[in-house]
Structure formats: structure tokens, C-alpha cells
Amino acid sequence: MSIQNIGKYIIRLDSVDSTNNYTSALFAKENPAEGTVIMADYQEAGRGQRETIWESEHGKNLLASIILYPKLDASDYFLFNQCISLAVQEMTETELGKEVKIKWPNDILVKRKKIAGILIENTIRGNSFLHSIAGIGINANQLKFQNYFLPATSFSLEKKNIYMISDLLNKLCSCLNKWYTALEKEDFDFISSSYSKKMYKKDEPAFYESKGEKFEGIIRGVNEDGKLWIEKDNGELLKFSFKEVKFLFE
Ligand code: BTN
After folding, report:
1. Which site among 44, 160, 245, 248 is 20 to 30 Å from 32 CA-CA?
2. Could you tell me if 11 and 36 are in contact, meaning their C-beta atoms sit under 8 angstroms apart?
3. Which has the closest alpha carbon to 101: 240, 203, 210?
4. Buried b / exposed e along 111-146 (16+ C-beta atoms within 10 A)
5. What span, in angstroms and rounded, lies between the C-alpha atoms of 158 and 92?
6. Given a cut of 80, is residue 98 above it in pLDDT?
7. Is the pTM of this model over 0.90?
8. What is the secondary structure of 173-218 as a DSSP string?
């Protein structure tokens, strides 16, 4: 695509089951333009990672799915994932003026509270991407959340302000355009090193759990295929896929 197109077309919905589901149904009918954003004020069945529910009060938060056709081999999917995480991280950090981190693979945190979540759904044929749906939920004006494994926060809770969702979307789209352009220009080292710098708990001792075993270790980075590297006390370097390791919080 010609770059800088993310956000050129916006489909605004009042209520939908999930913007990712709506977007997926669009592909069954047509080939929607790259960069189209589908946003909703409310999701009746908003979806999170690991088959969880994404909670969001009516009209309070940014709920969007972005249509993209990454020109990448499917095996490079983690570069794409990194770009989406970096865009959400950068927009959030710039707006809040506070440090924002990416908890591998793509939770966006302020301190240890989750302010945004990302659900990327790729359709792959052979070794190529057919298309991707980048579902992004950013907590903007909601003040109360249920109890989750990771506590939640929002822009309003962090800054005691009320935010315009359309303004946040514009800012998000410029960050997405920046990072998607980097991907199109094959600035892969820049993308990976930027992601690595923003990783939550990188180079800090912390506790993890895998296969029922709790251990202390230090995150050292990620592979090109997205595996997380954790160094144990004895110097052993462990590599984990998504779902193979859990962060334990003090
Ligand atoms: C997570 O569990 O962290 C991912 C949350 C992703 C939520 C967004 S909101 C817009 C889009 N539609 C969905 O149903 N989910 C994503």
C-alpha cells in the first residue's frame, strides 16, 4: 500500500459483538482497503488474548480493529506484532508523559497496570500473510475495572482528565503509520531494538512460572520468532513460546 494510510477510512459502530469479529466478516464479502479502521463504542463480546473477555463500558474506551496486508513471510509475524505493540506503547507514553512498557508479547503497561491490550488475528496461506486484523483496546475514560490477573488502569485514572476517543484514535493512527512504514522499509533492526528497549522487566530479576515450576530469572530479549529469553540464576538461557510461561507479580 502507499504508506501513511492507516486511519484514512473509518467505520464507526455504536455496538457490535467484537470489532475483530466484524472485521473478519468483512473479509468474507470484500477485500477492504488496507488501513481501514473499524471502531465501536461498545462490544457485547469483546475478546482478549487466551480466550478472555475484554471489558469496556459503553463509550468510555478506544476499541478498534485495523485491517492490514503485511508484505512479510508468515515466519516474520513477530516483526509485525512488535510494530503494533510499539505504536500503542508510543502513543500511550507520549500522551501520558509517563513510562509505558510492553509486557511480552503485547500487553501495554503503566507500572504494573494494564492500560491497553492487543489481539492480532492473522490469516496465513503457505508462508505468506493474506491479511491481518490488529485489534486494539485502549482504556481511556473508564474508572473502575473488575479484578484481573493484571490490574487495569486508564488514561483518566493516570491523568485525572477526560479524553476524546477520536483524538486518541488520530494519535494512535499516526504512531501505527510510523511503525508500519518502518516495517515496509524493512527497518527490522530498528523495530527489534526499539521493542527490546521497551520490554517490561528486561534485565531485571523477576519471578516466572512454567510447567508448574516457579523460578527467578532475568528477561534478556526475544528471538526473531517471538520466543522470550529468560536467563536463570545458574546462567541457563530458557526460551519460551506464548502460553509456555507466566509472569508472577510481587
Ligand atoms: C488482551 O487480552 O490484552 C487483548 C485485548 C484486545 C481488545 C481489543 S478491543 C478491539 C478488538 N476487538 C476485540 O474483540 N478485541 C480487540
Report:
1. 44
2. yes
3. 203
4. eebbbbbbbbebeeeeeebebbbbbbbbbbbbeebe
5. 11
6. yes
7. yes
8. HHHHHHHHHHHHTT-HHHHHHHHHHTBTTBTSEEEEEETTEEEEEE
- Centre of ligand 1 to C-alpha 179, Å, is 20
**Terminal alpha carbon distance of the chain:** 45
Most ligand 1 atoms within 8 A of CB, residue of 10, 13, 20 to mutate: 20
Q: Which residue has the cell 494519535?
A: 171
What count of residues does the chain have?
Answer: 250
The phi and psi torsions of 186 (rounded to 5 degrees) equal: 60, 40
Atom of ligand 1 nearest to the CA of 49: 2
The strand pairing partners of 138, in sequence order, are 62, 116
Which amino acid is present at 191?
Answer: I
pLDDT grade, residue 3 (50/70/90)? low
Q: CA-CA distance, 114 to 111, in Å (whole number)?
A: 8
pLDDT at 2 over 90: no
What is the identity of the amino acid at 163? Y
Q: How many Å lie between the centroid of ligand 1 and the Cα of residue 231?
A: 31
Q: What is the pLDDT of residues 21-51, one digit of tens each?
A: 999 999 999 999 999 999 999 999 999 998 8
Say if residue 214 is exposed, middle or buried (CB neighbours under 10 Å; 0-12, 13-18, 19+): exposed
- Rounded-to-integer distance, Cα 247 and Cα 171, Å: 30
Rounded to whole angstroms, the Cα distance separating 35 from 14 reads 20
Identity (one letter) of the amino acid at 236?
E
Contact criterion met (CB below 8 Å) for 134 and 147: no
For position 250, what pLDDT does the model report?
58
Tell me how far apart the alpha carbons of residues 127 and 72 are, in angstroms, rounded to a whole number: 9
Q: Please name the residue whose Cα sits nearest to atom 15 of ligand 1.
A: 47
User: Which triple of cell numbers denotes residue 47?
Assistant: 475478546
